[in-house]
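Record 1 of the preview.
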Amino acid sequence: VQLQASGGGLVQAGGSLRLSCAASGGTFSTYKMGWFRQAPGKEREFVGAISRSSSTWYAGPVKGRVAISRDNAKNTLILQMNSLKPEDTAVYYCAARARTGGDYYVAADYDYWGQGTQVTVSS
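->
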């Protein structure tokens, strides 16, 4: 499956952004999906994940401010981000898991990655 993330940009602190991830070349509904982010000089970190049945999990720093959803009919993954903070500045990546087992918060357990979209939050 190929993943294309979009929707990043520059936003002031307290603002919102909606990231999209378009999937193609695979059966989107069969993948467990996740969002990760990577700030300059830091390791890639888990943001949130959604199962095939749309159960969701979120990292502590973003919990209550973001929401992940999926539209299997449109092969699209969404990350809605609200109350953005400067520390949310990073490149955001969508990822897909086809394998059984593994952990939803571990980047190495994902099989496919999008190219990333930059999110910059100004103070």
